[in-house]
Design goal:
Distance between the termini: 47 Å
Shape: flat
Strand order of the largest sheet: 10-9-11-1-12
Number of strands: 12
Number of domains: 3
Mean pLDDT: 96
CATH superfamily of the largest domain: 4-hydroxy-3-methylbut-2-enyl diphosphate reductase, catalytic domain
CATH class of the largest domain: Alpha Beta
Strand content: 15-25%
Number of helices: 11
């Protein structure tokens, strides 16, 4: 059995920046540092930061007044920002710049009088943050049925933005459905789906032509990792999502000659290495990285941490 590694895979620039923000905050200010929601959707990363003194909370009210607080990479609603200000929290914002871009776009459309439609998964932290960054009416759609149920009449000025971690193919279908229902709708096309999401999905499509099974390493609550699993299945190759090497099952590999391995954008490479080691124990011979796009995007740290550095 041969193992093929997708390229690119794993950490994107937004995730790397968010983790570095948390690490620098702990080094500079000392523990505890409070983090609103998981800094990124990966239990290994969260556990490592927690062991160093990060405290993760899902309610701003749980944070002692005046404490150093980090907003996660997924972004937050305006109401959360206001609540943090009332509690005089020292906030460092680790929101991915590409998510911030979506917030700005959505509010700009809203200020121009458009009803906003967010294409994404209701309840996901990123979507809730985007919804809460808009001052006017907002609707979230994740399916054709959701679009059919939208209350706006034809002729209503409508604009859409998208969650950054969606499937390109699925999002294209939803945008086309919105355009049919609201011919004058405006939006960014597929541009809001981030470069890293697109690159990882493209790499899985290419890898799917060469393998019998795809292993996606990532958290079950990671949107982009789940989309990688779906992309593989959509291209006719079964895929398994695992958070850790210990979840691999030998029965999955029966009659598999070539297995592909990729990782979600919030998955550290150490977990991929562990999966490869486990595959060797289960009979893998060669492990080879496929050619692919080398990502060079980097995002600057917040000014407060650049000064501290």
């Amino acid at each position: 059995m041969n193992v093929l590694l997708a390229q690119p895979r794993g950490f994107c620039a937004g995730v790397a920046r968010a983790i570095e923000i948390a690490e620098r905050a702990l080094e500079t200010h000392g523990a505890p540092v409070y983090v609103y929601h998981e800094i990124v959707h990966n239990g290994h990363v969260v556990g490592d930061l927690a062991s160093r003194g990060a405290i993760f909370v899902d309610d701003i009210a749980e944070i002692p007044e005046g404490s150093l607080t980090i907003f996660s990479a997924h972004g937050v609603a305006n109401a959360v920002v206001e609540q943090a200000a009332r509690r005089r929290l020292q906030v460092i914002d680790a929101t991915c710049p590409l998510v911030t871009k979506v917030h700005v776009q959505a509010e700009r459309y809203s200020q121009r009088g458009h009803v906003i439609v967010v294409i994404g998964h209701a309840g996901h932290e990123e979507v809730e943050g985007t919804r809460g960054s808009v001052s006017g009416p907002v609707h979230v759609v994740g399916s054709l049925e959701d679009i059919a149920a939208l209350p706006m009449l034809p002729g209503t000025p409508v604009a859409y933005v998208t969650q950054t971690t969606l499937s390109l193919d699925d999002t294209r279908v939803l945008i086309e459905a919105l355009e049919r229902r609201y011919p004058d709708i405006v939006g960014p096309g597929l541009e809001d789906i981030c470069y890293a999401t697109q690159n990882r999905q493209r790499a899985v499509r290419q890898m799917a032509r060469q393998v019998d099974l795809v292993i996606v390493v990532g958290a079950r609550n990671s949107s982009n990792a789940n989309r990688l699993q779906e992309v593989s299945a959509d291209h006719g190759v079964p895929a398994r999502l695992v958070e850790h090497a210990c979840e691999l099952e030998a029965v999955w590999l029966a009659e598999v000659r070539n297995v592909g391995v990729t990782a979600g954008a919030s998955t550290p490479e150490i977990l991929v290495t562990g999966v490869c080691q486990r595959l060797r124990e289960l009979g893998a011979g060669s492990i080879r990285e496929l050619p692919g796009l080398a990502e060079t995007t980097r995002f600057r740290l917040p000014e407060i941490l650049r000064r501290a550095g």
